[in-house]
Write a structure and sequence with these properties.
Layout (H helix, E strand, L loop, with lengths): L2 H17 L9 E6 L2 E4 L15 E4 L17 H10 L5 E5 L2 H9 L20 E2 L7 H10 L5 E4 L3 E6 L2 H23 L8 H11 L16
Parallel strand pairs: 5-6
Antiparallel strand pairs: 1-2, 1-4, 2-3, 4-7, 6-7
């Protein structure tokens, strides 16, 4: 997709996550890697009112916090930028205040291996990053620690982050994370889940490596 199409896709996914209940109001935000820049939702603009020109553009490398566009970027731009800087495998970041993931983040409960789909996030759990005020560099640092070896995390007393190589995959991950959070929450109400052992999750991870449509490497076109 060209830049205008990507900007419109960001808006479409923002509207979609609110329509589905994955997010409410303007509390969530989305960023996408586009070459050496990050395209990110603007601050405090209702999704229904957004047009492509309002999506802010920021250099991934270079002066920290520099941006271009008629609207300033989301106040959460630091963790979006730092994830893209530190994780070349990530092409998009989705942040939402989805109900069940946020409930667990408020209780500061990581999601354990209550279902084999936990492996979709890179390991046997989804961690909770330590609390820091929104929009701060401290929050960004806490998120990066929580996401070591993972593609998603909960944010204490805040919400969740999911990533992917594309925006479509990041949004799929956000939906899956909220689903797992909902399942885990309800299992706690009936006595608690039976946790799958680490060796089972390791086997699932190996299976996922060859499951479904895989990304291609630039070098040889083989499944990555």
């Amino acid at each position: 997709m060209n830049e205008i199409e990507i900007r419109q896709s960001i808006i479409d996914h923002c509207r979609g996550m609110n329509a589905s209940g994955l997010n409410q109001g303007t509390s969530g935000n989305i960023s996408v890697r586009f070459g050496d820049r990050m395209l990110i939702t603007p601050s405090a603009i209702p999704y229904k009112d957004m047009v492509p020109d309002m999506i802010a553009s920021m250099p991934i490398e270079g002066e920290y916090g520099e941006w271009t566009g008629p609207k300033k970027p989301s106040v959460e731009w630091p963790f979006h930028l730092d994830i893209l800087r530190s994780r070349p495998d990530v092409g998009a970041v989705v942040h939402t205040h989805s109900t069940f993931a946020t409930i667990l983040s408020i209780a500061r409960k990581p999601i354990p291996a209550c279902h084999y789909m936990i492996a979709a996030f890179g390991g046997s759990d989804v961690r909770v990053g330590e609390y820091a005020r929104y929009g701060t560099r401290e929050l960004s640092e806490n998120i990066l620690r929580a996401m070591e070896g993972r593609s998603a995390c909960l944010m204490a007393n805040h919400g969740m982050i999911a990533t992917g190589s594309t925006l479509e995959k990041a949004m799929w991950a956000a939906v899956e994370l909220e689903t797992l959070a909902k399942q885990y929450y309800h299992s706690l109400l009936i006595g608690g889940p039976v946790i799958l052992p680490d060796e089972e999750i390791a086997g699932v991870l190996k299976g996922f490596a060859s499951y479904g449509l895989q990304d291609k490497t630039k070098e040889d076109g083989k499944a990555a």
